Amino acid sequence: MAQYTPYFAFFAPRTYEPGRLFLRYQILHMVEVFKTDVASSATARQLITAIVQELNGCRANFDLEDCDRILRVCRETGPVDAEAVIALMRRYGYTAQVLEDTVIPTFTP
After folding, report:
1. How far apart are CA 57 and CA 77, in angstroms?
2. How far apart are CA 61 and CA 40, in angstroms?
């Protein structure tokens, strides 16, 4: 049977075979998504640097092409402190609002 190496292979020391999945580590990435009023990529880079430096264990990126000018903040361990992100944005003169998750239930017959 053919052996496949999944994209998460660097987390799992074994290989992936169709029908069998070997994972030794549970990987959790908590992501919080914000609507912002950031318009320029230079400002976005400055804010990303501030988030990484001030909020330990967080990574961030912006999607300025989206109509909501999305900010995604990711933390590998534990939840993202949304209030701290909003306060940081406010200190730099920008606003951020948490975008709530919308879960659409699906039914399988």
Report:
1. 8
2. 13
Look at residue 2 and tell me if it is in a domain: no
Structural domain of residue 74, as residue ranges? 30-98
pTM summary value:
0.68
User: Is residue 74 within 8 Å of residue 30, measured between CB atoms?
Assistant: yes
Q: Classify 84 as helix, strand or coil.
A: helix
What are the DSSP calls for 38-72, one per residue? ---HHHHHHHHHHHHHHSTTEEEEEETTSTT-EEE
Q: Residue 106 has what pLDDT?
A: 75
For residue 8 the two structure tokens come to: 């998460």
When divided into structural domains, the chain yields a total of 1
Q: Tell me if 108 is assigned to some domain.
A: no
